[in-house]
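Students often ask why we bother predicting the structure of a whole assembly rather than each chain alone. The short answer is interfaces. A chain on its own may look different once its partners are present, and contacts between molecules only exist in the joint model. In this exercise we take three input lines together and write out one structure for the complete complex. Read the inputs first and try to guess which parts will touch.
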Amino acid sequence: MQFKLTDEQKMMQDMARDFAQKEILPTLKEDERDHRFRPELVKKMADLGFFGCAIPEEYGGNGCGFFESVLLAEQLAKVSGSWRVPLNMQNIGPSVTVNRFGTREQKERFIPAWVKADSFGFFAITEPNSGSDVAGMGTTATDRGDHWELNGQKMWISNAHVGDWGLVYAFTDKSKKYKGMTCFIVNLKDNEGIVTAPIETKLGLHCSPTGEIAFTKARIPKDSILGEVGQGFKICMWQLNNTRVSCAAGALGIGGGAIEAAINYANERTQFGKKIGSYQMVQAQIADIVAEHEAAKLLVYQAAWLKDQGMPNQHQTSIAKLFASEAAVHATSETMKIFGSYGFSTEFPAERFLRDAQSLRVVEGTSNIQKTIIAGIALGDVENR
Amino acid sequence: MNILVCIKQVPDMESRFKVDEDGTWFDGADLAWRMNEYDEYAVEQAVQLKEETGGDLTVLCIGPERVKETMKKALAMGCDRGVHVVDNESFKKDPFAIASIIAEFAGPKNFDLIFTGMQSQDRGSAQVGVLVAEMLGLPCATTIVGFSFDNGVISVKRELEGGVKAKVTASVPALVTCQLGLNSPRYLTLPNILKAKKKEMLVIPVADLSKTQALEETTSLYFPEKKGTGLILEGDVADLADQLIKILKEKTAVLA
Amino acid sequence: MKTLLVAEYREGKLLGCTSELMAFAKKLGSESVMFLVGSENALPKFAGKLYLADATTCGEYNPGGHKQLLLEVIAKEKPDMVVFSHSSYGWDLAPRLAFALKAAQFSEVVDIVDGVPVLPVCNSKLLRKVTPKTAVTVLTLQAGAFNLTDEPTGSPSIEKIGTAHADTGGNLVFEGYELAERGGVDLTKAQVIVSAGRGIGKPENIEIITRLAQVLKGEYAASRPVVDAEWADHNRQVGTTGQIVSPKLYMACGISGAIQHLAGMKKSEFVVAVNTDKDAPIGEVADVLVVADLKAFVPVLTEKINNL
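Now the answer. The structure tokens for the assembled complex follow.
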């Protein structure tokens, strides 16, 4: 067993931290207030090679794997939970999935554009009436001979209204249930049948654009299918198992950022003539969240490592996602308490960490769904893949 | 162009320092180590020059095994090869002894340009670059905030006090010491970090290059006495403002 | 004990560090002679011997030439210490001279205790005492570290040097000065300075600082990182490589207090620091440390002062 980062991994970690401090933090308060997404920042991340993990070099890969991407996500999220999302939108979501299931032509056409952020990626699964129940989705794709026709609505889609090419999941044959779902590579721009709109009513992640997509007789070229007709559900589950680990790394970042703030505050703030960190009750709060954070870190790193080894990891990924997001929610909640009134103030970051952390136990499969997966594998009902 | 850039690994200045057992230096254990900030500008300028003119760029660092990590950063920024002069006691050497080692290495290599930081963040002597130049008989411009190279001649701007700069030229071979703000040191890219791993790292035991003795010695290292005479105000900003206004009225004439 | 004090001159003016060199010699209790490449029209107040070379023939920046002139004076006077200011002139020339003399050099001396120089380490978080292994030593003094209690008086007895060889510098060619951008401000004459550090976070916030400077009828200034980020002009920079200031009130907002900055402002009469970090080094020189985020505190303060 080896628990030490290589010099290269440490450098990547330092670089991502430096990048977040210098490029994200200075304008974060205003960006959060104005719900501002900064496309140029995504481009900068692309220039530094952030989006080429787990991708072959011929398609713009950077020679790194999931593990390194997780290190980046953690450092970015430590400063802003919103800004780890592009890793999933450009790299771990569409790029890695097309690399696994796409044809050579599709890979050449789409992956380098996502890696370089020439095309803003997305993936559209959730709908107004279907979240956890993926197979309950209503969006359909009908074969019209020379094209596919998409009808339906997607909701809570990251990058919906800023996205270019991305993945859309729809039923090609509802009667076949799971086996009737298909994945399409779709361009949201320049299509009369596609309308996108932002959702501005989120509790947190204000710098990460979220929106809805409506398909009304949208004409999609015949060659848009990723994998095979009917393979969509399988692709979707495979993809979520990857984007999940990036989300878990985001949880490490948000939790870690909150803990750092809490520790600094506990060391600085004095009450009754002593720093508040000298009181046992505050110490107990700190001990709990630090211990959970350290445990979460090992779980997340392990899941990413297993992916890079090509070993079964669904079990470990769901455990990591469940534990890390719950730990982050706990850490941010305790941090807010430690900050007292200042925790309740929007002048201090505690409340932002708390709001952003809440998203973690919803996205990429709710905590309940993670438990279903974990229990299913633990009970031997499902195989760990 | 044959270029050398000399870098130093220094502790993160935010560290909590401890004085070592001998009482003559800080304890190196438990410190986070970084590239000397001034040297980042030196490396960036050297890499830019190499990209502009082609040629070969060597980065040199003196110190224990851990300095390799800092050297890898310079390699990832674009240096072609590393020269690690292994010295577990480099912290005991004075600027003269350090400069002698660099000059001993650089002398026979005939570098066209040598870049160093203007000073280190820990010792802050601002001597090593100039001494290397003197030892090698090179023209040396210190504290540069502007650099260009054309046809064998460097044109630099030296930063003086009060916003004034001195424009200086010299023919290569030459040495420059780099001030903060000279350029914008690049972020490392992931592919370049991995490429750096494959670059040559030459290891030289310090005994092979160290031919001189230090001219000075640190006899004691200690924490300055905390003055602690200042008044510390904490609390709600409106109260703080009122308190401060009261103090300014009492102690200064500016709010008369 | 004898010290050779090296004064500085640029563009027709004697630079301000001469009295600090004298204060050092006084604290050390040594006799001293002075060296200057300058002009008879700008002489230091110094009741002693001055070796004077003419800057018009010997050059203002000509370290090789100045080194030769110094070596001649040293051969004659045989000082135990050669003392420079830790300035762009001093730190450039001192090591060249030290090498020629095979002498130990101590940089940025902040104090001298029983004849032993004290030097800062790691941004003055630590100090060290040093011993030379050479008979002669070369020193550079931190700006503001040594001060005379009284204004110096007297006129030097001048011995002209450097008349035989105009320029022996050789390998560096001085092409001229580039002045600070126009619209420059002389911070050294300001009574009140409100200064912005890295803590302002972003360029727009400089307005928070300029507004307070305005209501206090003072000037705004900045620390090096703010100037490097081009959030403020270079002529607003306080510190070793900016301007050395001594206003009645200096307000350091979001400035942690790097040694180079402290050297530029610690002679201020009254220092107020606004910083979220109670342990920031700026606290060492501050008369009042307000522990607060400047972005929250300064606008409130400005408003209240404006309403006085």
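Check your guess against this: Chain B has one domain: 2-208.
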